[in-house]
Amino acid sequence: MPRSSAVAVCATSAACATPASVAASAPSGAATVIPADPSAAASGGASDDSGGGAGLSRNRVQVVANDYPEGLYVLAGSDGTGNAYFVEVCTRVPLTANCPDFFGVMSLMRPADALGPMAPAAGPYGAVRLNGPWSSALAQAAAAAADMPSAVLTSACAPPPGIDGQRKAVFSWGWDFGSLPPSLAFSGFVAVYRRYPLTRLHPGSYNVQFLKPAAVRLAVIVKFLDANPDLAGKSRPDGSPLAEREVIATTDTPNMVIPMGNVTEVTFVFSVPPIHMLDYVEKMSAACVMTQNVWIAELFAIVAVAVVAFLG
Predict the structure, then answer these.
(1) What CA–CA distance (Å, rounded) separates 191 from 205?
(2) What is the pLDDT of residues 223-261, one digit of tens each?
(3) DSSP for residue 129
(4) First-last CA distance in the chain
(5) For 238, what's the count of Cα atoms within 13 Å in the CB-facing half-sphere?
(6) What residue ranges are annotated as transmembrane (predicted)?
(7) Which among 115, 111, 105 is positioned nearest to 124, based on CA atoms?
(8) Domain segments of the chain: what residues?
(9) What DSSP assignment string belongs to 95-107?
(10) 276 sits in which H/E element
């Protein structure tokens, strides 16, 4: 639904008391105004925020919490049409922050922001309709979007994956629609636990179990440096090392093979639908269990020894 009135975000209650006080406070930075934009849908889709230091977009403004020691105040006036809209104040972990206790960052995005043109908005607040399977390409698109400040709606530190020896990894995460931004209950969301440095996994073949509600979709992305000597020192057109590769398992393809090399990081992706597709259950969880096929792991070791012996 179009929003045809301005919304002000202020550092003090006095600055947001009236439209006149907002106008007087804006030059000093005590008030930031998101101008009226009849073409801006209330879905709040992400846009390029690079043009403004505050991260200003059509329906979203990003601010630094330390700049608001007295709290954050919002003035949202009626547009006179009788159409209802609401304002959500969300918190986000800075991209440069380090979570304590080996925790990683879980970022939540509206589906349209996470998947972009691969799944255009088809419902309220950035909901999408996925007509095909939950593919590796969709999982990679969501993981990449989590690196963009304009796409992430809210984020928080989350406990790390558990690892048993070097052949099994487990990651579980739960959500509560009652404590998330209210609009996510209508749109669903994509959550990404991004770039966790889980370097203790061995190369080999893994069976991946996804323990989840039926309507939830999961993926795990493992990044590694390929040990193939033919790739050493070579780069892609974007400058990234050619030896840096990813393998992906999804709920539709629950197996992966990590070739010989060194695992550098792991990313977990959760696609959670609107709450009505989950029988209106607010609190739920899902888990990913990666278990290495032992006999194949032993075969990898034999091949590695044979290669070393041959080269020696």
Answers:
(1) 26
(2) 887 776 666 677 777 767 677 778 899 988 888 888 887
(3) -
(4) 69
(5) 3
(6) 294-311
(7) 111
(8) 7-76, 104-299
(9) TT---STT-EEEE
(10) none
